[in-house]
Write the structure tokens for this entry.
Amino acid sequence: MGLVYAEVILINGEDLVLARRHIIGEDEIRKMPVSMLVDTGAYMLAINESIQEQLQLPVVEKRKAELANGHIVEYDVVSPVEVRFKNRRCVCSAMVLPGSSEPLLGAIPLEDMDVLIHPQRQELIVNPEHPYFAQMKMK
């Protein structure tokens, strides 16, 4: 199977809260479309510094991550970020990768949105068993 990319919309979660409270208008919510590599080997959402700057996402902590080559590095973590894909959404934290690194859509947001990789079509799809809403296991 080759690389799978998904077109998602990333939204500043704090802006959504402010808009719900009518402190800012809907047109002031910072959001952007992003093509992300779907990476089931990564746990979290990972964005780059450019995306973080454009969305003005606040740093909430630093966290260490092990890279594919075994090196351990420390990255900023920003939150909250809303991820939208088709009729799905989730709110999560994101690690901020340096420079213009490729953004990754990891296992946690994939599970939360109840989406799957279709191996023959090599694309991200809404779970066909739950086409109208995300469903999670609670056991």
Remarks:
- The CA atoms of residues 45 and 94 lie 5 Å apart.
- Strands lie at 5-12, 31-38, 45-48, 59-66, 72-85, 88-97, 104-105, 115-118, 123-126.
- The two ends are 30 Å apart (CA to CA).
